TrEMBL record:
It comes from the Bacteria. Residues 16-195 form the Cytidyltransferase-like domain. Coiled coil: none annotated. Gene3D superfamilies: HUPs. This is Probable nicotinate-nucleotide adenylyltransferase. Its EC number is 2.7.7.18. Pathway: Cofactor biosynthesis; NAD(+) biosynthesis; deamido-NAD(+) from nicotinate D-ribonucleotide: step 1/1. Catalyzes the reversible adenylation of nicotinate mononucleotide (NaMN) to nicotinic acid adenine dinucleotide (NaAD). Pfam families: CTP_transf_like (PF01467). It comes from Marimonas arenosa. It catalyses: nicotinate beta-D-ribonucleotide + ATP + H(+) = deamido-NAD(+) + diphosphate. Belongs to the NadD family. Keywords: ATP-binding, NAD, Nucleotide-binding, Nucleotidyltransferase, Pyridine nucleotide biosynthesis, Transferase.
Amino acid sequence: MRYHMPHTRAGRVVGLLGGSFDPAHEGHAHISREALKRFGLDELWWLVSPGNPLKQRGPAPLDERMARAREVMDHPRVKITDFEARAGTRYTAETLKALMRAYPGVRFVWIMGADNLHQFDQWQDWRWIMQHVPIGVLARPGQRIAARHAKAADIYRFARLRGRQAQALAWGEAPRWCFVNVPMVDVSSTAIRARGGWRHV
């Protein structure tokens, strides 16, 4: 089963939350609602990846992860998509370039956790991402110190918006990023798999 490409229009602000979602859980849903609110997004897309190139063991089948994501995230402004599988992209930079070609005039914002910011400089073409797409970083209270020591945060310190400017994140030229603290739900895909709460076919 394949899902339709999301429909949107030029001028809309669309947040992008990428990952394997293996499985999707309430933590993903929670940060999605927070991102919509904090960063002034018109909508948010979950980019359910075919697989993580950094992991040796593949995730559960894409169709199963897509179905689970739709069960977990029932929100009128959140869309679940297999865009990466359709576009044939493996890395975030490739996916962003393909999205920009497919949706001219849409303002995309990349959403990620502080843990990803800490190792962001290991991502392929991470500087291209930073230079072309605003980034919204969500973190548990207390993670600010670790994020402050991230290489990407240090190099692009000049492009950081203060938390009170978060609503304006999409309305300016990259590089620009914003770090906000949000209460987090203590659940992870790894823990769910470890306790046998997710069937891997």
